[in-house]
Amino acid sequence: MTESVALLGGFLAAAVRVATPILLAATGETITQRSGVLNLGIEGMMLAGALAATLGATAVGPWTGVALGIGAGMLLAAVFALVVIGARADQVIAGTAITLGAVGLTGTIYRQAYGAGGAGLDLPTLTTIPLPGLSSLPLLGPALFAQPAPTYLGFLAVPVVWWLLFRTRVGLALRATGESAEVARASGVPTRWVRAVATIVGGGFAGLAGATLVLAQVGSFAERMTAGRGYVAIAIVVLGRWHPVGVAIAALAFGAAMALQFLFQTLELDLPYQLFLMLPYVLALLALAGMVGRVRAPADLAKP
Amino acid sequence: MRARGWLVGAGALLAGLGVLAMGLELAGYDAGRALGALWSGAFGSWYAITSATLVRAIPLVVIGLGLAISFRAGALNIGAEGQFYAGAIAATWLGLHAGSLPSALAIPAVLSVAILAGALWIAVPVLLRVRYGVLEVISTLLLNFVAEATTSLVVQGPLQERQGIYPQSDAIAEAARLPLLPGTRLHAGILVALAGAAVLHHLFTRTLWGFQLRAVGLGPRAAEISGRIDGRWMAAAALAVSGAIAGLAGGIEVAGVSYALFQNLSPGYGFTAIAVALLGRLHPLGVVLAGVLFGALEAGASAMQREAGVPAVAVYVVEAVVILVVLLAESLRRGGMTGVAAIGSATGARARG
Amino acid sequence: MTPALELAGIRKTFGSVHALRGADFTLLPGEVHALLGENGAGKTTLMRVAAGLIRPDSGHVRVGGIEPTALSPRVARRLGIGMVHQHFTSVPAFTVAENVALAAGWPVAPGRLRERVRELSARVGLPLDPAARAERLGVALRQRLEIVKALAADARILLLDEPTAVLALAEVGELLRVIRRFTAAGGCAVLITHKLSEALSAADRVTVLRRGEVVLTDAIAGQSAATLAAAMIGEGLPEDGPAPTRTSSTNVQAASRAGQPPAVRIESLDVARDGGYGIALRGASLTVAPGEILGIAAVEGNGQRELLRAVAGRLHPLRGVRQVATPIGFIPEDRTTEGLVPDMTLTENIVLGSSASDPWIRGRAIDWRVARARTAELLEEYAVDAPGPGVAAATLSGGNQQRLVVARELARKPAVVVAENPTRGLDIRATATIHERLRQAASEGAAVLFHSGDLDEVLELATRIVVVRSGTLILPPPDATRETIGGSMFAAS
Hints:
The complex is a heterotrimer of chains A (304), B (353) and C (493). With 304 residues, chain A is mainly α. Helices cover 73% and strands 2% of the residues of chain A. Chain A has helices at residues 2-34, 42-59, 62-86, 91-114, 140-145, 149-167, 169-179, 181-186, 191-218, 229-239, 244-266, 273-290, and strands at residues 128-130, 146-148. In chain A, strands 1-2 form a two-stranded antiparallel ribbon. With 353 residues, chain B is mainly alpha-helical. Residues 347-353 of chain B have low confidence and may be disordered. Chain C is 35% helix and 24% strand. Mean pLDDT of chain C is 85; it is low at 237-256. Chains in contact: A-B, A-C, B-C. At the A-B interface, α4, α10 and α12 of A face α1, α5, α6, α11 and α13 of B.
């Protein structure tokens, strides 16, 4: 019995750890989309954050990596904001271009910095920080309270973003911008600035997510390592109904789906691992299809 | 095409190459050597032109033509990569079993299932969009990853080679392979690409349907009120067609180049084709030229990697800059974009003036 | 007494349209001031100037005797001016409370906020449920929300744009009482309206605008429905006599077709509001014979749009009978978004809406040479001033764009022509061309239905007139005059 408990506990811990980058990226994208901007460049920003974090960690240390990761995400987001808010270009194509460019950029810089041999680096990573007392709780203890720092940041971000969006005037103005930019402007809200800031903040989250992926999960960098997590984050935003708490729950559910493969491996069930690779995306699609009709995006989303 | 469209395209390409060169210098590479390798890898010899550049151009042109249809209707198919794989899987499956058929039957059969598979792969996003208005951007994107995982699954499972060592399929039957230009690796797919461009040109310039599609993209409300066109179904049809064409590209790649299925069959053709379509201003001729250009870039990129040590992915930076420059140019000209279909408005109008 | 609000010599031109030609308006403290006029007279424009939403070409705005250096919506709000618009200006997905908070800059603590909103709305006599979603509110409650928003922002001067246009009778009385209470407490209000009865019962003073100029300002006590209506519609055009008998020649033609079946027949038609809630047209019954030009006289928002679009087949009626002969030519109100694709060439725009009978259609293909040639012909025929058929429609002036749309629709020799405000924003020459074309279409056997916000235009062009008011079709008696028709458009008895 205790063996299955331990197994379940391990699975939950893995689920939370795997979910963290997605949670962070999705939370940032929630802010961005609530202001009316659809950021498809999030995948590229995550990747850029991952590489920047790798560089920072090798040069100085893990926390420098985190800082550089956030910075890289914000930088790309600023470029994106300039193009889609400044020049009012099509958001989808611009976001796709940003991601494309980020793949090229990170791949090139990575090879140059680390040579053809590439990863297998001994990156100084972010170790788990067990919270005293709480981490000894059965099942949930290790899952929720013995995680690396970014996970705690993610947990913290959820209520903070919620409070910002729904309990402050800034949040109200931001949501108004995403729902009805014209009305917001008539009420004196500087909608373009609001959108630009929301986009850059979202980019910072994406960069942090990438840094987390490298420094608190995988332990090294590989080209295209984000493998669509950024896009999954966008689906998570929809599934979570653009609400930080809903997004957090959806992200955790996803982490669980992704962590299933580890569980099955431990159970030595002989299922092709690709099924687990597919599962999160298929689930996202099914959920999108299933919740259709009850989904309300911010009304002015992706309108220039 | 109007002169301005050409200029912007050329300018975008130059900007992209410029950024690449600058970036390479900054990163410590020898930009001159890299660009030289880029050129020779793409155009340095007859073999390079036919077997490197054009071969890579074919899938880009084919997918790009399909995307031109989709974008002109204002529908954003970002899942061409996944549709490509779906077509490749279907083509491989039939190709493995088509040994007893004559080529005249096997090849069309293989390409037909590829088309079907591509259309099926985009069917769910189309349905979601038509019935519920779900952004096709997200749904097509997600299916890319499912397609890649499915490919991986299939080449390690049901379609794996007999010997069971490598994650790839057996070679497809001889009958199902596209004929080659002797002495090169240029396959008959180029005829499909060129024919496709001609068909698309005819479609856009001569048919009522093509005209209505363009109207929906450029003026949806007027199309509905004055043109009495149902925009939703038009966009759905455009999406379906673009998915089918992307599937066809996958089939062509299997039947003409790889003769087998394996992971990473596509080095991102579905995404590069977006750049191709935009650079070509959604015009069939433009798409062909842009496709050749990007084919050259990718062919050159391999050479660049071999000879100058620059990772091939660097070419994505060029593509990204090209897309952004075209977007910006169009957006600034109009003081704010009114949709991606507008990129096509600079071209073709003169032809029907 | 220093006026609370003073507008002096306001001029505003939009393109070629002179919306305001030196209008003066004064609002005294504590008064309710009615602003009357037909559609297009400039009432809304004048008030939007006061609210800082539009900058006038010339003229002065003084609030409390002081002229602000730059009047923006923010500044206006700070000066205590609150405009309550005719169209919904709240965020649909937000609750009432959130909308008020956004408009008034209140903090968002939900419990406190709801209490404040509840308390304020109750205090002014317009109770609202703070937790209700704005988009779910009925029209009357939406109106309330707009007013509460203005009051929450501490407005002392309320500018209300047609606030009772869509209210039921009981709700109107309530609203007027609220306004009274507001002015009694020291505020003052401008009531833009076209309902004479309202002006007479609710206002202290009245100003009448006609074609951008003030034609009358007086205490309401010195006015009557007759004098106000006369001021609003003015003397009329010089050649005008009693309305229906004037157009003798075309009337004869219409009469000669009386034997034929009607081109348009609707019975008990109900049509939902286009782009809004509720029913815009109720129980409409009408026949139009070939060769008739039916003019629809109505104030905007009373249902004439839904009537025209239902006849044209662009809106589906909720119930009733609709029999309209085909082909139907439709000239929509908004030429740049509904009538034309600005990015396409003139030829392509002519091809829009092709049917099998068009000369350039060959099965499923388009013969562009034929289309181009035909377009060139039409450009000539309809006097469209353009370098050639190959230019983009966006390069044409408004008048020429409209000529193009008319050309396209009439060239198909329709059995029925439906035109929404076909001469809006056009100069005299373009207007004359359009009129000529419509008359020609009628003389060739088409049934023409049109609406114009300018009563004189309706009177001049139409062979028969109907009035639409509050969703009901009103057929004027045979001896109706200009005055009575005008009156029936406005009165809310």
